[in-house]
Every structure is written in C-alpha cells, then in structure tokens.
Amino acid sequence: MQKCDIPNDIPDKPGVYFFLGSQKEILYIGKATSLRSRVRSYFADDIVEKRSALIAQMVATAETVEYTETDSVLEALILEANLIRTHKPHFNTRSKDDKSYNHLIITNEEFPRLLVVRGKDLTEHYEEKDIKYTFGPFPHGMLFKEALRIVRKLFQYYDTKKPVTEASSKMERGKIDFNRQIGLYPSEENKEEYIKTIRHIRLLFQGKKKQIIKELNRDMMQLAKAERFEEAIAIRKKVHALTHIQDIALIKKESRFCRDEKTFRIEGYDISHMRGKDMVGVMVVVEHGQPEKSEYRKFKIKTLTDANDPASLTEVLERRLKHDAWPLPELIVVDGATAQKNAVEAVLRAQNISIPVVGVVKDKHHKPKKFIGPGDLITTHRDSILLANAESHRFAITYHKQKRTF
Questions:
Q1: Which CATH class, in words, describes the domain spanning 265-405?
Q2: CA distance 296 to 88
Q3: Residue 34, class by beta-carbon neighbours within 10 Å (0-12 exposed, 13-18 middle, 19+ buried)?
C-alpha cells in the first residue's frame, strides 16, 4: 500500500476529513465523531475486510490527508454533505447509489417548508420553481433523521405534505387553524418570525452558524434595550443551545447506525399466510453476520386477498422503500425462486435503485438447495445469506401466527 502522509496533530474532535491525490485532488470525503480515530482506521491491515476493496484502492492512491474540525457532530454531518455536493469526489460517488440518498429542500412558498426528498425524486416530483434551497446528499439516513430532530429543537419548522395555504376541506382548515393557535403552524401574525427561522435553518445548513449567533445576539441586545426581557432571555437560551449543540443522541446513533463502506447490510424478505388468509410479510437485517433485530419490520398485506407471494413481495418492498430514513442494503435475499426474485428486481428497477437480489430455493422439506443470483456475492456472503433467509422465514411465521391468534 502506498504510504500516505497523515498529519500528526489530528484531534480527537468531530469534523470532516479529506483524502487527497498527487495533484491535491479530493479523492474521498468523510465525517467523524473523532477525526483521529476515524482517519487512523483507514490504515489497518484488514482494510479490505473491514471496509471494502474500493476504499483500500482509495487509500493506496491517496498521498495526503487533511481535515476540518467542527464544533459538533451535527455540523460535521452538514459540512460533509455540502462538500460532497460541491466536489463530487471520485470514491464517494462510486461507493453508493446516490439517487437513493436523502436531500433536504426548503420550498419556495409563502410559508416555506423543510422536506426530506430522495435524490431521484428531486427532478421527478419537483420543478425548479418549487425549490428555494437544496442541501445534501446525506449518505447516512439514520443519522440524518436524528440530525433533523436536533435541528428542530433549535428551530421550529413546518414539514407537512401540503403547503399551509392548501387546505382541501373544512375539517382540514379547522385543524390548521387549531395548530396555528397552539403555535405548531405558522400564521400571518408570526410570519416574519417564521421566515427568520427558515433563514437561520438555511444558514445552519450552509455552515454559517457564527452568522446566526451574531444576528441572534444583535436581536437580543435590541430586545433588552426595549425592556422586552422575556424575549431576550429566550434568544439567549437559543444562542447557548447553538454554541453548545447537544448531539449526544447523534453520536450514539452514529456508533450504532452509521453505514459506511465497512458495513455490508443484507435485508431478507419472506411472506407467510394460510392459503391466502392473514397474509403478512417481513423484513429482517443481517450485518457482519449477525441479525440486527431492532431493525426487523412487519408488513400486513393490504392489496391482496388470494395467495400470491411475488405480488406480496412487490407490495412489501414498495412500502419499505418509502421509508427514506432506513438505510438501503447492499444485498436483498428473498425466500423463493425466479418469480420472487423477478418481482423484487422489478420494484428496484421502477425506483431506479441498483441492489443485487439473491433467491434461496428450497426443497420439499423447506431446506435450502440452491441460490439464484450473483455468484461472487453468494460465495462471499453465503453464511449471512442463509442466516437472513432463515431469520425472515422464522420471523414471518411468528408474525403470521400472531395475526391468526388475534
């Protein structure tokens, strides 16, 4: 492996790191809770096993590592997304299908909304005139979801499916009016303040936290001068929250959910029913050869009344892909033969998502007898494929029995 020049003073702090090539071109950008630990991890002897051959190639190509320290993990996540969007590093764009990544948009409306949108939907579902600002891509779905929770504690924003002004019924208008009264929806009375909030969110996602704090301090002084002390105190608390962002939840999420190149996620799917009755589907997750039971999901089949496993799989996967916060897998395993495999692949093609699929074909005793799918992946991940298939079958039967009982 080519020797890469690593700075001796890399801090044990959150931030963003850059692997640079011989011409100082950016090969790869990543974010870290601890810059020191994360950068050093790339130079372990088992880099291929722990991360991937692609990342090992990147490290071998790199000549230097640089970094930018941030005040918090939240700001590191935001900075990483901005820099990937700007520079489009070769090894970032090759490592994942960025059409499935989340983006954050601020709508171009009277009362702007913050919406999470997949990359492929930015152009399919929105016109240029509908979007005021776009941020991302955010490669880590679970972390991004947690980050938005933190942002929302700092700045209240509006993110429902319809604009505030588009109430389609009297009941809906009544609900909006009620929510405005209790401060959940923006109104004409607080419109100016809401627009300022949206501006501050925009500045935060542009990496301009210091500018926000400067503006808030100015507002606080003006309010204090006008003897509006309660409002001034509220702003002082917000400045303190911004200066000391509490992102311990994000750090915990990163240790548990961060999906980088070292993680090979397999999702297994199975359908269970009794001659078409009480049809259910399940999704299980296997990582590093271990089941991740906290990420298992159940689906009650809603569109079918007769037994049809391929159609049931279609429904389950379509519903699963609507959950943007769930990280996409590197491999999907289905219980069944060509029909089941084709059904899943058709859904993925329709969504412009590239994920290999393996079908596990069973004998008359319901024991695996062969695999259908990419041979190299089957050889490398055979045990994990079998585990995902066994777990999905067990979980589906358990869920089906529960449905029949109740």
A1: alpha beta
A2: 33
A3: middle
Question: First-to-last CA distance in the chain?
Answer: 60
Nearest-angstrom CA–CA distance, 395 and 390: 9
Token digits for 290?
């271990």
CA pair distance 156, 159, nearest whole angstrom: 10
DSSP string over 125-180: T--GGGEEEEEEEES-HHHHHHHHHHHHHHS-----SS-TT---SHHHHHHHHHHH
CA dihedral of 190, 195, 200, 206, whole degrees rounded to 10: 160
In DSSP terms, 28 is beta-bridged to: 19
| Numbered ranges of CATH 3.30.420.340 in the chain | 265-405
- Per-residue pLDDT tens for 140-191? 777 888 899 899 889 988 887 777 666 555 656 665 665 555 455 666 777 8
Cα gap 105→388, rounded to integer Å: 36
Polymer length of the chain: 406
Position 56 scores a pLDDT of 85
Three-state DSSP class for 372?
strand
Pick the CATH number of 15-95 from 3.90.1150.10, 3.40.50.300, 2.60.40.420, 3.40.1440.10: 3.40.1440.10
Helix axes 209-225, 191-205, angle to 10 degrees: 150
Position 363: which residue type? D
Q: 289 burial class (0-12, 13-18, 19+ CB within 10 angstroms)?
A: exposed
Where do you find CATH 3.40.1440.10 in the chain?
A: 15-95
pLDDT (0 to 100) of residue 259: 46
Which two tokens mark 350?
């329709």
Contact 355, 331 (CB under 8 A): yes
For strand 331-335 and strand 357-362, is the pairing parallel, antiparallel, or unpaired? Answer: parallel
Low-confidence stretches of the chain (pLDDT beneath 70):
1-2, 48-51, 94-100, 164-187, 249, 252-263, 275-276, 325, 404-406
Query: What is the strand order of the sheet 114-118 is part of?
Result: 114-118, 102-107, 131-138
The contacts found for 187-193 with CB under 8 angstroms, 24 or more apart, are 191/111
Distance between CA atoms of residues 270 and 247, nearest Å: 37
Residues 282, 284, 287, CA angle at the centre, nearest 5°? 170
